From TrEMBL:
<dbReference type="InterPro" id="IPR015793">
    <property type="entry name" value="Pyrv_Knase_brl"/>
</dbReference>
<dbReference type="InterPro" id="IPR015806">
    <property type="entry name" value="Pyrv_Knase_insert_dom_sf"/>
</dbReference>
<keyword id="KW-0479">Metal-binding</keyword>
<feature type="compositionally biased region" description="Polar residues">
    <location>
        <begin position="66"/>
        <end position="84"/>
    </location>
</feature>
<dbReference type="InterPro" id="IPR040442">
    <property type="entry name" value="Pyrv_kinase-like_dom_sf"/>
</dbReference>
<dbReference type="GO" id="GO:0016301">
    <property type="term" value="F:kinase activity"/>
</dbReference>
<keyword id="KW-0460">Magnesium</keyword>
<dbReference type="Pfam" id="PF00224">
    <property type="entry name" value="PK"/>
</dbReference>
<keyword id="KW-0418">Kinase</keyword>
<dbReference type="GO" id="GO:0004743">
    <property type="term" value="F:pyruvate kinase activity"/>
</dbReference>
<dbReference type="InterPro" id="IPR001697">
    <property type="entry name" value="Pyr_Knase"/>
</dbReference>
<keyword id="KW-0067">ATP-binding</keyword>
<dbReference type="GO" id="GO:0005524">
    <property type="term" value="F:ATP binding"/>
</dbReference>
<keyword id="KW-0547">Nucleotide-binding</keyword>
<comment type="pathway">
    <text>Carbohydrate degradation; glycolysis; pyruvate from D-glyceraldehyde 3-phosphate: step 5/5.</text>
</comment>
<keyword id="KW-0324">Glycolysis</keyword>
<dbReference type="GO" id="GO:0000287">
    <property type="term" value="F:magnesium ion binding"/>
</dbReference>
């Protein structure tokens, strides 16, 4: 997302939110309908709402096409009868396959041709819709689907299902997992791209961990209530596992960056504490908003950005991994100014790598330096969670 200047940031965030909401709502509706097709249910909502031009027969069911425009629930109309598709926000056509309406006395099984389209589900209709839009010279939606791949979705079967369902970008979150687990995902995405099941390539996005301030490990989840005391320490010798009222912080400069009366937000604001005392190694707080406190939680000081380096040693190692694996995008976490973008791009040139660099706008400093950051980058991501914490 390219934003012209700082005054446009709020508008850009609103547009992103609306686009994401529209895409999720729209995709959910499509998924439900194609699930009905795949099950071959003659009583599906699809069968009731989409009239077939002909009835499929057992001798060789033909693919029946009914071109629809995306409308509000309960409102559908065949294209050619109106011009709704020219004014709808999504301006998207859907081609539904209605072979599942075969009459029982003419055969319950669909032809292999129709069944293949039904198995493809979203994919076949999506490609036909895009082709139809191109022929009509109509503007197409620019919203893409980015999926973060984790343990639950990293198997071959799960990844291929995501790709078939319309995923455009696979996101590798370097805050979790290791290079071996991420390489397995990269290899599977490349394998899928090589099959030719889709004309467009599934892209790979590597999201750096960035210079985050995080709490240490706890033996168990701690339940904090309003008024409780809690302490953070930079002393590495402290054993957090044996203390339910104190934990370590991974940033030695933490005691210098904060001040008495600052509000410390834990895990994006799920918990909040007020700083009441600071020593050479400890930051002592009183809980304002209680809740569960778990290990390795992200810490923010409301309205202030930590004086951390923009790139850590781990980030550089992860970027090298991305170059070696041939990813398409780098998402740079906690970018404060354009200097880090220029530094990464210069390094990429020295590596002979063509990878787009996308800074994540998620701190007060990144907003202040937004113009310069956007001029240096290939796009941008607005990280609402951390940005909302620093700029409530």
């Amino acid at each position: 997302v390219k934003v012209g200047n700082k005054t446009h940031l709020q508008s850009a965030i609103f547009s992103l939110a609306m686009a994401a909401f529209s895409q999720l709502t729209f995709t959910s509706s499509i998924a439900q309908r194609h699930a009905a097709i795949a099950r071959g249910s003659g009583n599906s909502d699809l069968s009731r709402s989409v009239p077939a031009t002909k009835v499929a027969t057992a001798a060789g069911a033909r693919r029946q096409r009914v071109t629809m425009t995306a409308t509000t629930p309960g409102q559908r109309s065949e294209s050619g009868n109106n011009d709704l598709n020219k004014v709808l926000p999504l301006q998207t056509e859907l081609t539904y396959l209605t072979g599942s309406q075969a009459k029982a006395n003419e055969g319950k099984k669909l032809s292999s041709d129709v069944r293949e389209d039904a198995r493809n589900g979203w994919l076949s209709s999506d490609l036909k819709a895009r082709k139809s839009l191109k022929e009509r010279k109509m503007r197409q939606r620019k919203t893409k689907v980015v999926c973060t791949i984790g343990p639950a979705s990293s198997s071959r079967e799960a990844l291929f299902r995501l790709c078939d369902a319309g995923m455009n970008v696979a996101r590798l979150n370097m805050s979790h997992g290791d290079h071996q687990s991420h390489k397995q995902v990269v290899d599977l995405i490349k394998e899928y791209n090589a099959t030719g099941r889709r004309p467009d390539k599934i892209a790979l996005l590597l999201d750096t961990k960035g210079p985050e301030v995080r709490s240490g490990d706890l033996a168990t989840t701690v339940y904090l209530e309003t008024g409780d005391a809690f302490t953070f320490t930079i002393d590495p010798s402290h054993k957090s596992e044996s203390d339910q009222k104190m934990t370590t912080v991974n940033y030695d400069g933490f005691v210098n960056d904060v001040h008495v009366d600052d509000v410390l937000l834990v895990d994006g604001g799920l918990l909040s504490m007020q700083i009441v005392e600071i020593t050479e190694t400890e930051v002592r707080c009183v809980v304002l908003e209680g809740g569960e406190f778990k290990s390795r939680r992200h810490l923010n000081v409301q309205g202030r950005t930590a004086n951390l380096p923009s790139l850590t040693q781990k980030d550089w190692e992860d970027l090298q991994f991305g170059v070696d694996q041939g990813v398409d995008f780098f998402a740079m976490s906690f970018v404060h100014d354009a200097k880090v973008i220029n530094e990464v791009k210069a390094w990429l040139r020295s590596q002979g790598a063509e990878i787009s660099v996308l800074p994540k706008i998620e701190s007060a400093n990144s907003v202040m330096n937004l113009d310069d950051i956007l001029q240096a980058s290939d796009g941008a991501m607005v990280a609402r969670g951390d940005l909302g914490v620093e700029l409530p």
